[in-house]
Write the C-alpha cells for this entry.
Amino acid sequence: MPRGRPPARTRTEVVAAAVAIADAEGLDALTMRRLAAELGAGPMSLYTYVRDKEELVDLMVDHVSDYDGPPAPTLLHLATWQRDLMLRHPWLPTAVPGRSLQGPNMLGFLERGLAALAGTGLPGPAKMEILALVTGFVVGYVTHELAQARAGVTAPEQVAAQVDRLRAAIATGAYPELAAVLAEGGSEAPPSFEDVAARMITGLVG
Amino acid sequence: MPRGRPPARTRTEVVAAAVAIADAEGLDALTMRRLAAELGAGPMSLYTYVRDKEELVDLMVDHVSDYDGPPAPTLLHLATWQRDLMLRHPWLPTAVPGRSLQGPNMLGFLERGLAALAGTGLPGPAKMEILALVTGFVVGYVTHELAQARAGVTAPEQVAAQVDRLRAAIATGAYPELAAVLAEGGSEAPPSFEDVAARMITGLVG
DNA sequence: CCCCTTTCCCGTACGATGTACTGGAAATGG
DNA sequence: CCATTTCCAGTACATCGTACGGGAAAGGGG
C-alpha cells in the first residue's frame, strides 16, 4: 500500500555496502560517489535512504555493533568483545568518538553493561559514566594497537625517522626518564589487553 | 647570515594564530585560507612554515601543551591539568586521537608522567601504556563533558528529540535496566572528575 | 655598485568532496 | 487512463587542501 515508486534498495543494504567499503579500504575511501557506484546507483540516490553522511556513519556504527557474546557478560567480557569488534572494523575507533549512539544495537549493548553493573549499587549516572569510560578506554587501546600494527607494515622508514627524532631529543639530556625507557628497549613485553582492562575496571567499580 | 628573503612571520606566530581561530570558532572553522587571511597573507604562504595541515595541527597540539603545574606532580595532577587544558581548548579532544606527539612539550609531559610512575617498578612499556590510557581517559571524559555542555546551549529541541527517541525505545520494554536509570532521573549527580580519575589511576597502577 | 643566488610570497588552478536543485521515471489509487 | 506520490539521478555549486610557477626581496661576490 505504499503509494509512490518503491525503493530499489533497502536502507540496511546501503549501510552494509558502506561498511564493506570502510572495512576494505578505510573510512577515508568511503565517499558518497564511491558508495553509489558500488551500488550501481547515482550519487544522489543515497539521500533517499540517509539524511547526510553523518547519519550514514551513525547507522554504520550501530549496524556492526550487534552484541553476540555470552548472555550475562561481565564488564571485562564486554570490553573484550568491543576490542574484537574494533579489530575487525578498524575504522570504528576513529568513527565512534563524539557520536550519539542511539541505535538499537547500541542501546542493547548499553543494557548489557547496566546489567553487568546491577550488583554494584551505584547510582544510574555513575553507571553510565563508567560504561562510557570503558568504551573510551577500548577505543584508545585499539587505536594504539592498530597504529603500531600499521607502522611496521606500511612505512618502516617513517618509523625510523620518528625514532631518530626521539633520539635527538633525548640527546639533549632534558628527558632522563624517557631515555631510561628507550634504553631499556623491548626487553619487556607490554601488558596484555585483558590484564590492563581488568585492572582499570576493578579500579572503576571497586 | 641567512641567504635569501627573510620570512615575514614566525612559525610560532602562524601556529598561535591557528590556535586562536580554533579556540574561538572550533576546529572546523580553521581552514588554510581563513588562517592566511587572519595573518594578512596569501593562502599558499603558509606552506613555507608548515608541510601540510596535518603538521599544522600537530604543532598546535604541542603549542598549547606546555606543562606549567607543580614540578613533581602525581598522575592525578597531570590528568587534572590535561582536563583543564582541554576545557580551555575545546578542539583538543577531537584533535589529539591518533597523533604522533613528538613535540618538545609533549615529550616534557611524558617525562613528568614517567617520573610520577618511577616508584612503581613497572617495566617501561607498561608505563607508556598507562600514560596513553590516562590521556585517552581524559579525552573521553572531556568530550562527554563538552558535548553535554553544548547540548543544553545550542539545540534544546534536538536534545528533546533524542530523549523522545530514547523513551520510544524504552516503551518497547526491551531495555529494563535503561528504563530504570531513566526513571531514576537526575536525582543523583554524576561523580566528579577527580573521583573517577583517582579510581581509574589507582586501578591501573595498583 | 651590480648582478646572482637564494629564499619566500602568493595568484591561479585542479581535483575531490558533500549536497542543493530539478526534471524525469515508475509505481499505485481513483 | 489519469493523477498523485514517491524515488532516481544528471548537473552544478561552494568549499576544501594544495601543486605549480613566476615575481619580489634579501644578502654575497665580482
In short: Chain A touches chain B through 59 residues (CB under 8 Å).
